[in-house]
Specification:
There is one protein chain. Helix content is 3%, strand content 67%. The protein is mainly beta. It has 2 domains: 111 residues, no CATH class; 214 residues, Nucleoside-specific channel-forming protein, Tsx-like (Outer membrane phospholipase (ompla), Chain C). The strands form 3 sheets. The protein has a 12-stranded antiparallel β-barrel with strand order 12-13-14-15-16-17-18-19-20-21-22-23. Strand 2 and strand 3 form a beta hairpin. The radius of gyration is 26 Å and the shape is elongated. The relative contact order is 0.08. The N terminus is likely disordered.
């Protein structure tokens, strides 16, 4: 490939000056053409003399464009402007006629001219099934179902999710709980959004007939890529709890949430963590915490095998009930 670049560099001497975007490689070769995109650490440059070239991003020393391009940094920030070469493996982004960024290392640039999502709504979802069945000296059974459906466009996101757990042993019910939720996010910018959410929980073993929460707040989408998604959010929620054999409660709370999903090991492993903390504004000793943490191993055609740890904590449970509930689950997932 190195010799190909040298041949192409010679061809640049005979091309029109209309090819204004230029790329200088670490070996000194200077290529002219039209910058197409940067993705997955490869730079695509369209030339009149050698077609479209795919150049390793790590071999690029300097880059300049004659027209504005869209640049996405590693932290998710996106800027539109002309690229101007600076020192070795650094670039400035000229935004309009007045603004210009400080020198940026090329390693901080994650993509150039990434596709715009526009107003198109993209649907994604996941369904999970787990359980066991034992017959003999011990009769036991367990069932776990959970799922999520997300509708996303450039300015909005709607998320529906649900979970069901049922288990019994020797005719005695050992688990019976479910939860459903809905959340609406409105994006004020590429990364900042405002949300409204509601959730309903039932846990028979905890004596909880129904817990309902209604809240609103703001969040920041730190990363939203195919291989990494991370968001943090906070706001206020109103919590109402109805118990079977205890006094009902209602209290305002501060809410903090986190959502993380990452694909590692060249797509062979997916990690995830979702958590919610509701901290009572009437008493700091009263709080609720829920988390779902685990991993999935893709098996192909949308299926994956996974394991997950559910952890629920109620700092002020019903009388005679414990605060913490932990469950280890093994599941079959299907993703669309």
């Amino acid at each position: 490939m190195k010799h190909d670049w040298k041949i192409v560099a010679v061809g640049c001497l005979f091309t029109s000056t209309a090819l204004a975007d230029t790329v200088t490689l670490l070996n000194g070769d200077r290529l002219s053409g039209t910058l197409v995109r940067l993705e997955t650490k490869a730079l695509w440059l369209k030339t009149a003399y050698a077609g479209t070239l795919k150049l390793p991003w790590t071999q690029v020393d300097q880059i300049e464009t004659d027209a504005p391009v869209r640049v996405r940094l590693a932290d998710g920030t996106e800027l539109d402007g002309k690229l101007q070469a600076d020192r070795a493996r650094q670039v400035r982004i000229r935004i309009g006629s007045l603004a210009e960024t400080a020198p940026l290392a090329l390693d901080r640039i994650d993509a150039i001219n990434p596709p715009r999502q526009g107003d198109r709504t993209v649907l994604s979802g996941r369904a999970s099934l787990g359980g066991n069945l034992a017959r003999g000296n011990t009769d036991a059974q367990a069932l776990h179902l959970d799922g999520e459906l997300v509708a996303r466009n450039a300015g909005q996101r709607v998320t529906l999710d649900g979970e069901l757990n049922e288990a019994g042993q020797d005719g005695v019910e050992t688990a019976s709980n479910w939860r459903v939720g809905m959340k609406y996010d409105h994006f004020a910018s590429e990364r900042i959004y405002y949300y409204a959410n509601t959730r309903f929980d039932h846990d028979g073993q905890a004596g909880l007939d129904l817990r309902s929460t209604l809240g609103a707040g703001a969040g920041r989408q730190l990363f939203e890529r195919d291989d990494l998604k991370l968001s943090l959010e906070g706001g206020l929620s109103l919590v109402n709890e109805d118990y079977a054999h205890a006094a009902d409660t209602r209290f305002p709370s501060a809410r903090f949430g986190a959502r993380y999903e990452q694909t590692v090991w060249q797509g062979r492993l997916k990690l995830f963590h979702n958590s919610d903390l509701l901290l009572s504004l009437e008493s700091l000793d009263d709080y609720l915490y829920q988390s779902r943490t685990g991993l999935r191993v893709p098996m192909g055609k949308g299926f994956s095998l996974g394991t997950q740890v559910n952890f629920d904590y109620d700092a002020v449970p019903a009388a005679g009930k414990g605060s913490a509930d932990t469950a280890l689950l093994f599941k079959l997932d299907y993703t669309i």
